[in-house]
Amino acid sequence: MWGEIMLYEIVGGKLQKADFMTENALVVEVLPYTPGESPVGDDDEKGSLFESIFSKAYSRYETYESLDIVCINQIFIEKYKERRDPVYILVEKKKITFYSTDPDNIDTFMCRMIDEHISKLTTGDVLYYYMFRMIHGDLLHLEDMERQLTKIETHVTADEIESSFSKQILKIKKHLLWIGMYYEQFLNLLADLSNNMSGLYNKSTLKKFKMLDSKIDRLYSKTKNLLNYATEIRSTYQAEVDLQLNKTMKTLTVITVIVSPLTLIVGWYGMNLQMPEFSFAYSYPILIAVCVTIVVGSIVYFKKNKWF
User: Fold this and answer.
1) Which of 81, 243, 218, 232 is CA-nearest to residue 149?
2) Spatial CB neighbours of 57, under 8 Å, sequence gap ≥ 6
């Protein structure tokens, strides 16, 4: 079920709430979107167009005569989730319509624009400011993720290795990949919008799109750098784990080398045979001395060669 329309208008270049459409004003509509449904068009041709638009939930740009269609999967990068929340935006010369599963979020954005008293607005500018608002604060969240990675790296390099580090790093990498894909789609959208195939945007709006493209490109680069950083930390972590394993194996090897001659002696004299030295009175003390010499000699040798 498609709900009530939230209506705004641009009068004198400024956005304001409206109860009805004013003649010659630019119109901004916000409608709730129900997945799996599409609004009914005024005619069969428009209805068919809407059905095509709302049947695809991935981020994309489509242009028709005097109409641009932008689909953005709205996310908040600090909260990783698999579910998509698509926002469909239909841009015309004198009208821009938002279809969203969370229309209250769009309404909040519109109220902020009104409070900021932004002037000389066009429908293209409303689209720009909405896209700009979507990445507001993203840099702070990326810096927070960088601090998390730095903290893990500090523990790893200080030999304070925990079994949970691997899972933490993989979780952050998965999150960063998700963010990177989001920015990549955003950049593709801006590249298409900047071409202005429909002729809906003036030079000022196209300049804004270019600045936004530059900003998102920097965020995308930072995301890729953090991904590389996470990969390096994981490699360092794995190297530390392997080093600890090597130390353990070295210790076991030393013990094995020390014990092996003693085991041989025990096996030798454990056989049910009559040995000539059994009749010698000092055989047992000599055997003890030999065993002690082997153990002490092995320890001295390994210590001298810094095996432990």
Assistant:
1) 232
2) 35, 71, 73, 84, 86
pLDDT of amino acid 57: 61
Name the band, by pLDDT with cuts 50, 70 and 90, for residue 207: very high
In CATH, what number is assigned to the domain containing residue 38? 3.30.460
- pLDDT tens-digit series, residues 214-247: 999 999 999 999 999 998 888 888 777 777 777 7
Which pLDDT tens digit goes with each residue over 21-73? 777 788 898 988 776 665 554 444 555 666 666 666 667 888 888 888 888 88
Kind of pairing between the strands at 26-32 and 6-11:
antiparallel
Q: Name the domain boundary from 112, 134, 156.
A: 134
Work out how many domains the chain is built from and give that number. 2
